[in-house]
């Protein structure tokens, strides 16, 4: 059995929205309290407390802070588990030390565990969630299998969504006995060894002008609002940015445009990666270090929009689901080696788009297709 996440839109009433906000705020409160405790123990020479010890401390904190009982209990336990995971990554050198979560920019989601069927689908229109009761939702017909947990999220656009994790037993796709190597690019998002090129639709650039316009409006409106807030403070009146509707509208418009870009990119990549696992048994991808490539300020925007890491993660879980194989190879010299004779012909500027080998006199091969063939050959040679 595999685990599958199903995202859906929620339409909570006002009371349910208030409860979601309470769960988010108290999740942040518990995480910051536990982080403060861990830092204090370290300064006093104490040992690190794992997630099970932090879960026990929640009971003590509920006695000290009775308002914690308003939150859904398992979301507080998941806050401790998230902090413990962050510390484990810090101990192994993967991440920096965990930071406190700001009240101004909180983590706008929380996770609830399914215990005694406290998360279940009532019908095609309502889902039962802990502390919320029956919440209206779209897309419930896609939930099949035992529910494990749910992540409730408050989007920057003001909308609410839930990601339900269910047990899923995928049906293995039929074998095709075909192999493909993929070279990742910018002009074309993916170039396959069989000559197919996936067009890069540049979703971020297509809405850049409209998004930039709303970002300027937001900056101007926020500046004007801050001036009014300072004037009100001198007069003894308290104001907050949340009370300025024009600021909130501009903020939501920027968030909606960012969400639209992300949804378009997600759909494009999901469609392509699903098509790959249907037609090929072995998929070979170059293991690019995107973090290093983003330091190139001339290409960083295009590289970020291409979302190469997302392609790799999608192929990883889809190959695992459907019985296909994904291999990552070192991309070193794949654009310099001749795919026919294997000789290294040296570096070439990006303006040269065709590959010509002076050793075997191979000519008029697309440079990116040649690299994709080399990527596939590398994986086959290592098997």
What does this structure look like?
With 383 residues, this protein is an alpha+beta fold. The protein has 3 domains: 167 residues, no CATH class; 151 residues, Nucleotidyltransferase, domain 5; 53 residues. It has 10 helices and 14 strands. The strands form 3 sheets. The protein has a 7-stranded antiparallel beta sheet with strand order 2-6-7-1-5-4-3. A 5-stranded mixed beta sheet has the order 10-9-8-11-12, sandwiched between helices. A two-stranded antiparallel ribbon has the order 13-14. The protein is globular and about 80 Å long. The chain starts with a strand and ends with a helix.
C-alpha-based Rg, rounded: 26 Å
Helix content: 40-55%
Strand content is 15-25%
**Class derived from helix and strand content:** alpha+beta
Largest sheet at a glance? 7 strands, antiparallel
Low-confidence stretches: none
Ends distance: 28 Å
Written as H for each helix and E for each strand, in order along the chain, the element string is EHHHEEEEEEEEEHHHEHHHEEEH
The residue-averaged pLDDT reads 88
Overall geometry comes to globular
Strands ordered across the widest β-sheet: 2-6-7-1-5-4-3
Oligomer: single chain
- What's the number of helices? 10
Number of strands: 14
How many domain units? 3
Give a quick summary of the entry.
With 383 residues, the chain is an alpha+beta fold. The chain has helices spanning 14-43, 51-64, 73-91, 203-206, 208-234, 245-279, 290-293, 300-306, 308-322, 367-382; strands at residues 2-11, 109-113, 120-121, 126-129, 133-137, 147-154, 160-168, 179-184, 188-192, 197-199, 282-286, 325-329, 354-355, 365-366. Residues 1-46 form the Transposase putative helix-turn-helix domain.
């Amino acid at each position: 059995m595999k685990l599958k996440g199903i995202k859906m839109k929620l339409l909570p009433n006002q009371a349910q929205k208030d409860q979601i906000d309470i769960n988010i705020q108290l999740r942040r409160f518990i995480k910051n309290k536990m982080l403060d405790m861990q830092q204090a123990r370290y300064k006093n020479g104490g040992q690190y407390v794992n997630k099970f010890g932090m879960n026990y401390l929640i009971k003590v904190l509920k006695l000290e802070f009775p308002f914690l009982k308003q939150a859904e209990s398992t979301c507080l336990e998941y806050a401790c588990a998230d902090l413990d995971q962050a510390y484990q990554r810090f101990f192994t050198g993967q991440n920096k030390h965990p930071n406190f979560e700001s009240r101004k920019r909180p983590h706008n989601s929380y996770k609830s565990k399914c215990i005694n069927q406290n998360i279940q689908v009532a019908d095609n229109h309502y889902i039962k969630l802990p502390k919320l009761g029956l919440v209206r939702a779209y897309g419930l017909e896609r939930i099949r299998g035992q529910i494990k947990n749910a992540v409730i999220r408050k989007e920057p656009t003001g909308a609410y969504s839930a990601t339900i994790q269910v047990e899923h037993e995928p049906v293995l796709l039929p074998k095709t006995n075909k192999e493909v190597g993929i070279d990742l690019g910018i002009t074309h998002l993916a170039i396959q060894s069989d000559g197919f090129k996936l067009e890069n639709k540049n979703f971020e650039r297509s809405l850049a002008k409209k998004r930039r316009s709303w970002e300027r409006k937001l900056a101007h409106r926020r500046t004007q609002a801050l001036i009014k807030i300072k004037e009100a403070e001198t007069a003894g009146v308290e104001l907050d940015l949340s009370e300025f509707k024009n600021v909130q509208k501009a903020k939501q418009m920027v968030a909606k445009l960012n969400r639209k870009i992300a949804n378009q990119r997600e759909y494009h990549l999901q469609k392509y990666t699903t098509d790959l696992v249907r037609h090929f048994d072995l998929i070979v991808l170059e293991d690019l270090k995107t973090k290093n490539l983003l330091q190139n300020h001339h290409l960083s925007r295009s590289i970020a929009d291409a979302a190469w890491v997302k392609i790799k993660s999608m192929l990883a879980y889809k190959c695992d689901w459907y019985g296909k194989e994904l291999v990552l190879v070192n991309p070193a010299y794949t654009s310099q080696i001749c795919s026919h004779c294997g000789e290294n012909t040296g570096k070439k500027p990006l303006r040269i788009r065709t590959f010509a080998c002076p050793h075997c006199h191979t000519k008029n091969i697309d440079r990116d297709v040649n690299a994709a063939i080399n990527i596939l050959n590398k994986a086959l040679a290592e098997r």
